[in-house]
Amino acid sequence: MDHTLGQKIKSIRKDKQKTLKQVAEQTGYSISFLSQLERGKSSATLESLKKISIALGVSPGHFFEEEDGNPEPDGTNMEERISAYGVHYRNLAPRFSGSDFIPMQVTLEPGQNGGRPITHAGHEFVFVLEGTLTVEIGEELTELTSGQSLFYDARQPHYWYNRSVDRTVFLCISSDTGR
């Protein structure tokens, strides 16, 4: 199990002054699961990390920030990655916290089509920069290509897929009206 990930989640939760109970209520996960995750006794899925990140008001990649703290030339932190899942997140506003929305650049590797739909408070806007993105909302699949966008209620079950042989890069802005 990844104890470092758990420590990072706990640190962010404490910094945000949230209790395990509050995060459990916002994510739908049990206090026991969240506690085990923080102690490295349980594994996280991409879906659980996304829900936890939204509850904590950070991008999912925030859990995987580079430890050296060296900024990129444009002043942002190094790209934050969840590479084990074929998904790479880059927080586009790393120094801006406490907002009602989270702007991210998301890269899906070719064939990334695993995972289950999730729900959370708020809305999401996606804009495809490169490749083809399939968005599942409820029972409906929408295929977007470069230059196309979609806005949807995040309380509906939703998930993103890259069913192509090329990588997909898109902007995602998630709002959390439940905070």
TrEMBL record:
SUPFAM superfamilies: lambda repressor-like DNA-binding domains (SSF47413), RmlC-like cupins (SSF51182). InterPro entries: Cro/C1-type_HTH, Cupin_2, Lambda_DNA-bd_dom_sf, RmlC-like_jellyroll, RmlC_Cupin_sf, TransReg_Diox_bact_type. One of its GO terms (cellular component) is cytosol. The keyword DNA-binding applies. Residues 9-63 form the HTH cro/C1-type domain. Keywords: DNA-binding. It holds the Pfam family HTH_3. PANTHER family: HTH-TYPE TRANSCRIPTIONAL REGULATOR, METHYLPHOSPHONATE SYNTHASE. This is HTH cro/C1-type domain-containing protein. It comes from Bhargavaea cecembensis.
